[in-house]
User: What shape does this take?
Amino acid sequence: MTAVAQAPAGAPSTTSGRRPTSRRRREALAAMLFLAPDMLGLLLFLGIPMVACLVLGFFQVDGFGGYKWIGLGNYERMFADPLFLHSLRTTLLYLVILIPGLFVVSLALALLVRQRFPLVGLVRSMLFAPNVVSLVVVALVWKFMLTDQIGVIDRILGFFGVTAPSWLGTPKWAVGSILVVTIWFAMGYYMLIFLAGLQDIPREYYEVAKLDGAGPWQTFRHITWPLLKPTSFFILLTSTVSMMTGGLDLLYVLTSGGPANSTTLIIYYIYQQAFVYGEFGYASAIGAFLVVILLIWSAALFALTRGGRFGDGDK
Amino acid sequence: MAGIRRRSLFTAAAAGAATLGAPALLSGCGKSGGAKELTFWNFYAPNPNPGDPTLAAQSKWFEDMVAAWNREHETKIRLQYVTILGTPKLATAFAADEGPDIFLISPGDILRYYNAGVLTDLTPYLTKEAIADFSRPNMDTRLVGDRVYALPMEIEPLAMFYSKPLMESVGVTADSDLPTTWDEMLALGEKLKRAKKPPIVFCAAPGYYQNFTWYPWMWQGGGNAISADGKHSAFDSPGAVHALNLYKQTIQRGISPRVEPANADGALALMQGYAAAYHTGIWSVAEFRHRKPKFPYGVFAPPTPPGGTPKTVLGGWAFVANARGRDPETAAKFCAWAIGSMEQDSIDRVVDWCTKAKADIAPRKSALELATRNGGYDDPIMKKFKDEIFPTGRGEPRYPPVVYKAISDAIQACQLTGADPRQQAELASKQIDAYLKSYEGGRIL
Assistant: This one.
């Protein structure tokens, strides 16, 4: 419509003037139709469940179709529930170690595979490979490898005379094992994102730095790191959300939340409440609380980094 | 023109995807099926893994049973395989009011389903003679008052399975050398450890199954989780404390591993030499029979504490009919017809399940007698289970989730973090009492 209204005198006839509008409409329609299945899927499987979760949080739900309005009852129960508080503490501790660990390992790998060396493509593929395997399969393979005394890791250590601890049967080692497996599984994906960020940095900057006599550390500190800030922001944000809300299958197969609740992260506690005890209302309230925590974290991260620009303009 | 055609093609493709995709997505939310067909959720049939000989025999039993019913009745039964019941699939189905018409249930879940009004009272479809035919210690947790809400298809007692070659390697060569007390069992575990042999394995993974395997150790010393009237905690008792301490000792003294080998498959762990002894159930007999029939293994009754009495727990699944299903009456009739009638076919079916498809104790007196006459318990291991271990059994408790979790946390804390058993028993007892104060529903057993 704008094109028609602004068409100057002597411009092509009305018919030809409609063409761009008509084309744009058709393109818009095509775009909407392409997006429709995805949007419908998001609405059905994300939008509606999210709203339902928020609403269910105010009900006592027996898991058999019985609903009773209890207002903030589930939220009051949450803060008096020692197991919920334990799972929250465990989750925060887990994230405090996991997110920086994942960040550093992924960045180091991205810096490594950015180099040109024989079979670099194969190395990149191998590092990314765990991402294309089901997390249940990943967990099963690791579970067999980490089994006390007969797992391959214990056998290798035993060959060198080292007595291994019970990786999955001792509280502190179980948390450590989950951390290692999670980093192993996720690092390829975040490495790829870092790699994309690294490849966006113009090579000329490095060439000039080299001419100026900068060493690898100075190059990293003054060129790579500042120009990777938007990518780093994106990774910090998405990895926190993903690690806090995902990995249930890993926990379920590897430790079932044990030993003695030591790996009962909040996502596993939600699962237990909903599907083991049938407390769908309580589980929904915890889920809603988790969303609030993630929103606060995201807002804080946006504010602290000025939307990922870190006060450095659009770099 | 080529561009337009391509764009048109894309537009049409997108429209098609949207049109086809929407109903496909929406259909997941709708009710399905009609009243002429009832669904039976189970974890045996149709067989998802034809290569597994154990599962093949069990799947066939289900398929034959349903085929026999479908030949004679207008309302058909359709078997639907689901992974072990009590998982999210069943919980989600009931939450959406889409539960199966018939399903299998373990005693631990019965009260939750009964309290929600989901279980059909099967009593009107059973004769008094048939109800009396079910073994009572095992049947108790399937009754509310004198009404029957679930029909057991099997009885699965726990015992100690062991590898004969591994036991012989540490000098246990005769039945009289096998441990009969906790102290002897712990001493044997240390002997195996000193000889660098595989361990004695007790369940260490948290969950309903670990509680199930732990209860008999508590009962042996006279302990209980709930008082006889079902209204108070009885967990803060010497029996419970001693049993918690037993599990603590097995780990602290290095007798049992913190993580079970062979993915917690007792028979497999023994066959592959990962365990010298394993606390597991009678179902392992079928595993040996189908996978490695010549493997030399034995069974001994769970040892007892000083002054204790022999006890084991009787597990096993049961048929139930969904009271909110499409046709609860026919579903209940099916359950009764299949394994709860005095008709010979029904009794034969129980015999076949417990002695041919599986290796279990028949839950009905008539079936147990017939199976014994037919040689179903001639095998020395099965005979030992039937004559020595099963009579010491008590039905698997039906504790609500809060009670289960309090006990589970106590077991895990003592076993895997070395916590003080007395303190843990007190803590769990307080949690159970707090819950029982407001509990309303069927009697907790």
Q: What stands out?
A: Chain A touches chain B through 46 residues (CB under 8 Å). Confidence is low (pLDDT under 50) at residues 1-16 of chain A.
